[in-house]
User: Fold this.
Amino acid sequence: MNSKCKMHNAKLFLIAFLSVIICGQFSLVSAQNDGSQQNQTGRAGTFAIVGARIVTVSGATIENGTIVIQNGKIAAVGANVQIPAGAEKIDGKGMSVFPGMIDAGTNMGLAEITLAVNGSVDLTEVGTMNANTKAIKGIHPHSAHINVTRVNGITTVLSAPNGGLMSGQAAIINLNGSTPDEMAVVREYALVINFPRIAGGGGFGGGFGGFGGGGAAVDFNEAVRRRDTQVEELKKIFKNAETYFRAKDAYAKDKTLPYPATDQKLEALAPFMKGEKPIIFTAERERDIRGVAKFVSEMKVKGILMGGQEAWKAADDLKKNNIPVIYTNIYNLPVRDDDDYDYLFAAPSKMQAAGLKYCISTGDTGPEVRDLPYHAGLAGAFGLSKEDALKSVTLYAAEILGVAEKMGSLDVGKVANVVVADGDVLQPTTNIKYMFINGRMIPLTSRHTELFDSFKDRK
Assistant:
């Protein structure tokens, strides 16, 4: 019995030992494929990119210059720059340095697999009025989309919720960090409102010059009535908020008055109603865009237009009310059958000619944000100058988002969101060689690069 027991114990030990080894191997494989590579935050230090072509965006291009990155910021830029002792030198010969690109209209970090895994999507909340919803609370810093995007030269995005009438508050984030707070540039930047539009129904193309709402076509007058009703509902929300804040102010002065019950949704509207923070209105067609301008004027709020297919047609109203445009339609097809094929490609150049403040965005949930430079490149091929095409995804975007003092160009004192490439950053054939976010050198790896490396030598 003793020998059998010993043999049995030996077998158990062997099984346990092998289990540990096998589990360890699986753990190693899992560690390599668990998405952890999507959150390599890089390393800090003092860096000097020497002998490169420096495209400052805000000023003249320096054909043979040096840029110094120190303490997370741009410490020096110029043709004759003193390099700090101990700085890590990067040979920039044959390369160009650009500010990191900014996509001002995404849902980055809020959606992973939109068509198949509902649990990975956190874009909307229940109900139509969610002013208190904050995108920064739902951003997933380990999203696979982040590395895929940043290795293409995009360092910063606006991430916004959607759905309902008032979707919630968008955040501006850098594409580096282990937590949403580390990524945050502006935690609660703007309130997103899906402005009511005139929709005729009838599916794609069934609307009155736009995508229909599906189902049977609706009489135009009825569609206008519905739109006007929704606009009045939106105004009512603002008026209710005004009444709410007056009641709170009155109670603060006279405690004998009834105490107003706290309403978190109305509370959240305060900085937007006062014009302290902007409201992003989504609209595409000229009549709807003019409706946005009218609403901004009547409610005395600070507005930004997102979408803007026909913004150039309503340039007078937009300029009068100081409403910039986040244009998201470069990759879309013309909506109407009689639109020119380049109708949407040429819109940024028309906005430029009309004197509108604008920037170019992908308008994507996450996976295609990496194509931002090619959106700008297409606009540059259809009327926009090369300089303005680059500014549309760097300095212009930073100005619209109110962060131009921090990023958008290569100027001393700005955050070191810097991209080093072997060519024009807006061209698909260009390769990103180095990238810095907040002064940290970022590994140029993603699931795409790992997949490529795994299969490139297979025969």
Observations:
- The first helix runs from residue 2 to 33.
- The radius of gyration is 26 Å.
- The first strand starts at residue 47 and ends at 54.
- The mean pLDDT is 88.
